[in-house]
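As a warm-up, study this chain.
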Amino acid sequence: MPTVQTRLGAIEGVEHPGAVSFLGIPYAAPPVGERRWLPPVPPGPWPGTLDATRHPNRGFQIPFPEELAPPGGIPGVLSEDMLYLNVHTPAADGGRRPVMFYIHGGGYTVGSANDFDPWPFAAANDVVVACINYRLGMFGFLDLRRFGAEYSGSANLGFQDQIAALRWARDNIADYGGDPDNVTLCGCSAGGGSIMALLSAPDARGLFGRAIAMSPLEVAPAPPDVVTPSAPAMNMSEADFLAHMRGLSAEELFEFQTMAGGGGPGIDGVVLAGGLEEAIRTGVNPVPVLTGCTLAEGPFLTQGVQNAMGKDPNVLLGIEAAFTTNIGGGDASRYLPFLEAVSAGGTPEQRMDRVWLDAFRSTAVRAAQALAARGENAWLYTFAVPTDHEFGPTHGGDVPFAFGGIDTREEGEMYAFYRNNATNRRLAGTWSRAFAQFTRTGDPTWEGMPDWPTYDADRRACLVLGTEPDVVDNPDGDEALAAYGLL
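Now compare it with the structure written out below.
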């Protein structure tokens, strides 16, 4: 096993063909005991040689979706002690390679740094990939501001963890062959939403130089209030709520989260300075962005909701109501007539599928248009690779294409809704090369792709990755853009 001397101590990793993985590196002190619901703090050096050959703990969560799990499942035990990251590098040799900083998705309640091992991507493209954990659910997104100044940023502790991991990369990634001055954020779903949030986080300024936001959602205009409804339901005063929650074990807290629901990120004026468009307009973190979504975001998510919560149409209507204001750019009345028109005659599930699509799409286009108006570079895409899976090119199916995961299964076997075959391997090569190129240079185009211009409000160019990559002007259409509040 390769051993490297770093500024924090000696560390032993796992060697692969053309790459080395260092797993379970602590980037912050364990957020347990008195540190529960407090901001992350640096962990300090470790004694002796750190064994970085095993995947770290994961945050408490429900089982990861089987369709998206890598071969062999997701390693790591569930624990409140989970502020670790994995580094995959071609070599820990002092080289200054571009760094991709990957933030996992999962609705801020599921996922981990262990979701996949992108060492083949690192080896093939000569880049360093860092994958991080961050606090999930009520461990990372519970608004406790009413209980004192020390909890002022508690609603967005998960984002504070991400910023702490970025600081770790700034200070330490050079020990693993990475360039701290060339860091690209990348993430899908809640990972993409995290990136949009970090664009409005003043404390993240200067810690990354560009960003790839796959299927992102905007965070809520304000953090949800869990305390007010929960305290009386638990036969206690609001003043007693924090002490009670602090007395719970991690397992009991997760059980409470599972029963009560609630929690989640929101604009708090502390960690997040403001909304997405405002943050871009004022230049909180002005960086080039590559963003987009899949052609059929909804079917996988709609089925997941129904599997978990039943097929009562009111459940879907409740989720729809939570999205419509953001989709309409702050005004649900812009979006609802459009939704009624495009979903007329369809089933409640088909209507919900459209809401999912518009939620992700509006966020991506809103960010691209705001960046273009500011004079920053943005590239917009639609992932539309055909599949024989009933879901179509749906949510999360693009991640294996970006990181070479298609060929990790047997020939013909399906992973993330796609089969391992020659066509998909070729398209995965095209897509992962674009991600690597953007990470290296800040421009996703390379000689194997069509001319893909930056986004602007006149042409609205978008790369559509179908059976071949193709650039299409204004694929969303003016009616959808008006419904999003962008015309």
